[in-house]
Amino acid sequence: MENKTGxxxxxxxxxxxxxxxGIMIAxxxxxWNENRKLAVKSYNYLQRLQEDIESVSKGVNSSIKASxxxxxxxxxxxxxxxxxxxxxxxxxxFDKHLKEYFQxxxxxxxxxxxxxxxxxxxxxxxxxxxxxxxxxxMSDERNFIIEVNQSNHDGYxxxxxxxxxxxxYNIQNVDTDSSRAKVNYDFNAMANDELFINQISNQVYTxxxxxxxxxxxxxxVNNVKDSIQIELKKYD
Length: 236
Prior knowledge:
By secondary structure, the protein is mainly α. Helices cover 78% and strands 5% of the residues. It has seven helices and two strands, in the order H-H-H-H-H-E-E-H-H.
C-alpha cells in the first residue's frame, strides 16, 4: 500500500511538473510572439521616422537656400544704398529684395510619425533614449523657427512707413496666370534717407539671424538622420 501511495505521489508530482513546464513554455512562446510584434512595430516606426526626417531635411535645405538668397539680396541692397549707386548688374536683385520685403513665410515639414507615437503612447518603442529626446527637441525647435518667422513677418508688416514712403507696388497683368508685381521707387531718395537705410540694415541682420537658426536646425536634423540609420541596422 505504501509503495502504491509513493508511486501515485511521484506520478502526481510528475504531472504537476509537466503542467507547470507546459505553462512556462506557453508563456515563453507568448512573450516571444509579443516581443516579435513589438520589434516589427518598432521597425516600422523607425522606417516612417526615416521617411519623415528625409522630408524635413529637404525642407530645411530649401529654406536655407531661400534664406541665403534673401540675406544676400538684402546685403546687396544695403551696399548699393550706402554707396549711393545702383549698378545695372544689381538692379534685378535689388528689385527682388523690395518685392519680397515682407516675406517670412518659410516653414518646415512636421514629423508625423513621431507625433503619432507620442499621442498613442508608443514612444517607448524607440529604444534609443537620445533619439527620443532629439526628436522632441527637434519638434520644439521647429515650432520656435515658425514663431520667429511669424514674428518677423508681423514686425515688418507693422512698420511700413518707410516702405510706403519710397516704394509703390504695381501688379501687372492682373487676374492672369502671368501676373507679377513690379516695384517703382526713387533710388536717390532712398539712398539719402538714413532711416530707410537703417531699416534695410536691420533686415540684413534679421535674415542673417534666420539663416543661422536654420543651419543649427539642419545640424540637428542630420544627427537624427544618422541615428535612425544606426538603429535600423540593428534589425538587419
